[in-house]
Amino acid sequence: MVLNVPNVKFYNGNTIPQFGLGTWKSKPGEVTQAVKDAIDIGYRHIDCAHVYGNEKEVGEAIKTKIAEGVVTRKDLFVTSKLWNTFHQPDLVEPALKKTLSDLNLEYLDLYLIHWPIAYKEGDDLFPKNSDGSPEFSNADYIDTWKAMEGVLNKGLTKNIGVSNFNSEQINRLLKNCTVKPVTNQIECHPYLTQKKLSAFCKEKDIVITAYSPLGSPDRPWAKPDDPKLLEDMKLLELGKKYNKTPAQILLRYQLDRGHVVIPKSVTKSRIAENSNIFDFQLKPDDIAYIDSFDCNGRICPMTGSEGSPYFPFAIPF
Length: 317
Ligand SMILES: NC(=O)C1=CN([C@@H]2O[C@H](COP(=O)(O)OP(=O)(O)OC[C@H]3O[C@@H](n4cnc5c(N)ncnc54)[C@H](OP(=O)(O)O)[C@@H]3O)[C@@H](O)[C@H]2O)C=CC1
Ligand SMILES: CC(=O)C(C)=O
What we know:
Elements: E1 7-9, E2 15-17, E3 21-22, H1 28-41, E4 45-47, H2 55-67, E5 77-82, H3 89-103, E6 110-113, H4 141-153, E7 160-163, H5 167-176, E8 183-187, H6 195-203, E9 207-211, H7 233-242, H8 246-256, E10 260-261, H9 268-275, H10 284-291
Parallel strand pairs: 3-4, 4-5, 5-6, 6-7, 7-8, 8-9, 9-10
Antiparallel strand pairs: 1-2
Helix pairs in contact: 1-2, 1-9, 2-3, 3-4, 7-8
The structure holds NADPH dihydro-nicotinamide-adenine-dinucleotide phosphate and butane-2,3-dione.
Residues 22-25, 47, 114, 163-164, 185, 211-219, 230, 247, 262-267, 270, 273-274, 300 line the site of NADPH dihydro-nicotinamide-adenine-dinucleotide phosphate (NDP).
């Protein structure tokens, strides 16, 4: 099946499908089928990460769909991310090679520094001090980035980018890099619209990729009384106006802002529903209305890592 997913052009001339499948929290026992379903439905962009603990199962799905002749490797855009414990420059290439081996791929389309924050190197992905706080490493993301440029030059990935970087961190990176990041993958939805960081990145010709676009209702730290974006009455009303579901309005909101968007689902009907967003556009007034829901409602705050010198959320954007 073919979906009419537009491509977004990076400053380097390469392109990324504007819509893809997220895989955080997709359990090893369900993610293979979800990725297979998504590819059958027409998804061509899959967002992965070593820390999600399911790249082998994602790789199985990709291998099967290529073997079945549904897609070729070139049809797919696969992203992965360097976890915080691998920021020392000599760890970057081995970390990427581990991801490539898990995903059954010879190259990635995009490799991101997952967070500017570095954790103590070692086998534990979440190393802790005796008081339970995260154990940080002194690795500077500028040095990590130089190693990212190295794996790009070796052809192990077609593009490199960042995730969860604030404007000051991007400015510092731009002053110290040879290759500019193609994207900054950040949390973005109506309760955290990221207007300033989005405008800042646009000005630098860095594409925004919006994560948790549906409000991440399955995030492990969700509390029963937390506001539920997908149940927001204002979005339900907008959905009626466009004859679309709240999820489809939330995803279209990102597309109409020029962002790339990567909703996660392991449910076939929702994987299909989320892709049925290429036959309408939100009117500018409705985009402005949705913008007005902003309440600085960050749902991925990286709580506990505030002590890192590279914690990204200590400044307004
Ligand atoms: N760079 C980073 O630091 C981060 C990156 N990400 C990336 O972004 C992706 C998306 O963000 P994520 O936090 O997972 O959350 P999302 O906002 O995509 O929400 C996912 C949740 O919404 C449910 N859902 C999906 N579609 C629908 C629908 N149509 N109607 C109702 N419920 C629906 C899913 O349920 P079900 O699966 O049961 O169908 C799941 O519980 C991640 O999976 C990951 O790839 C996310 C967070 C941080
Ligand atoms: C989900 C994710 O990518 C985090 C928490 O880093």
